[in-house]
Model the fold of this input.
Amino acid sequence: MSIDLAKALDDACRGAEIACELMMRTYRGDYEVYTKEGAGDRAGAVLTEADLECDRALQHFFTSRYPGHAIVSEESVGSLPEGWQEHEWIWFIDPIDGSLSYLEGTDNFGVSIGLTRRGEPLLGVLCNPARGLRAWAVKGCGAFLNGLETGPLAPAGEPPRLMLSSNQSKRYSYGKAIGIFAPREVVMLESVVTKTIRLLQDGADYYFSLPHEVFGGGCPSAWDFAGSAAILREAGWFAADIYGEPMRFGGPETYWRRGHLFCKPELSDALLAQLGAFVQERRQAGEAWFSDRDVDRTDLQP
Done:
């Protein structure tokens, strides 16, 4: 089944606008805050009333327009129908990426929407309404940031600048990786939406996450990366898993266990080699490599 990707992009942008309008109504105001059970850290545990409102609105919006597609949204993942991963077309949606930042009023949050076909990310829309930033792309049509076509703005620095979240930077395994890479600077931002847009603004040269076999902690999910992967790839950045393979989403689970590397294209070979050596070291070291500072064992995903 084929669809009109230009229309799908228009719909994704409209859906993002709806979510942004909803989240900004209560931002820095009064609203209910809940706690997700089983989360490994505070960032993963925070659930706000705005998360749920945006989730309901986006579920209705996309289900009514694309009844033959699977709609996978973070706050509705527990009610996914059996066989969702068998759909040719899947929308991956994070209604508010960066809920803790939303709660703390730090502007590092936004909505992420990605569309995949047979696992391949073809379309992405990211919006950070507090900063007035929006990025979007469709495969073969270029990537855009606030209406202007975008791509890598300058060659990577020497040494290049790394982007991570503050939560990552505190982990033992990421500390070991940072020591190997020896970046000129570590830029810390708290949501994938904001980090991806900051890359497009040339705010850093690379951003990675470690695969589950190395990190062992809570996994990100497909909705964290599907939209960003589509946009960065179309913008001319290198966007792949930690093993250098194209990022493909769609099952059999929503967790993303393979890590990721987003970087300027001239860095990809060197960074993949370093990450490959790092993964191999971890495999050889076995379970003893982990540190209590790295992960609470209750944080491990199945």
In short: DSSP finds ten helices and 14 strands in the chain. The first helix runs from residue 5 to 26. Confidence is low (pLDDT under 50) at residues 295-302. The longest strand covers residues 89-97.
